[in-house]
Description:
- By secondary structure, the protein is mainly alpha-helical.
- 94% of the residues lie in helices and 0% in strands.
- The chain contains two helices and no strands.
- The protein has helices at residues 2-45, 49-81.
Amino acid sequence: MEMQLWNTVLTAALGLIIWGFKEKAAELKRLEILLNKTREEVAKEYVTKMEVHTDINRVLDRLDRLEAKIDAAIKDRRSAVN
């Protein structure tokens, strides 16, 4: 009788340990999925340094062209007044 009780206790303890490992493995898998989704979202929302430099250079080029047009307009106006 004592041996049967001991086997029951060991089986229950082993069952709880296995159940705990199973729950931890499921939680780890869930966290891995969330981490992968987070990595995907970060890649969608943020830009690389190269993209920023390209965009800034485009803006600066447009400003240079606008500055040249303003200078030309000022020269035309001055020459029309004189």
